[in-house]
């Protein structure tokens, strides 16, 4: 199996203070925590419609990206940066909130559909591919399709937020292997926990 090192980690979310603490911003929370751990600031790269930060993870140069468009235009930033640095879809990890997982759960997968997630839908369309990797951070489902939009744009309870933060920590602990492309190893580890 060919191991592709990850060169770009995209955290999905909506910009602006009013969205900062909402469930839909779990992807932002992930890359923010990672940048803080590495003590690297995000810089506004307006030509890529994103905040970008460069890290060294497991000996690889990895860019973190936070699109500053709204969620449903995330593909604009991802495709702009990926084209500029010639990063192919299978070298990209997209981190996003996942309704089908409980808070505290985190799963890694490659390819697949968008399951109604507007950020993923736009990235697939902009890249012309679904072959990128996803790190899915559980936020739970409100069990009523009609209130999903308000739910993802709402704040998690204190205990849910703690569980989500715990899941983010679990995933960051495995990040060296993820970046090195050892995805099946990480899947076994993450999918066996909690």
UniProtKB/TrEMBL annotation:
This is Peptidyl-tRNA hydrolase. The lineage of its organism: Bacteria, Pseudomonadati, Pseudomonadota, Gammaproteobacteria, Chromatiales. PROSITE patterns: PEPT_TRNA_HYDROL_1, PEPT_TRNA_HYDROL_2. Pfam families: Pept_tRNA_hydro (PF01195). The record marks 97 as: Stabilizes the basic form of H active site to accept a proton. GO terms for molecular function: peptidyl-tRNA hydrolase activity; tRNA binding. TRNA binds at residues 19, 70, 72, 118. It comes from Candidatus Thiodiazotropha endolucinida. Keywords: Cytoplasm, Hydrolase, RNA-binding, tRNA-binding. It is an enzyme of class 3 (hydrolase).
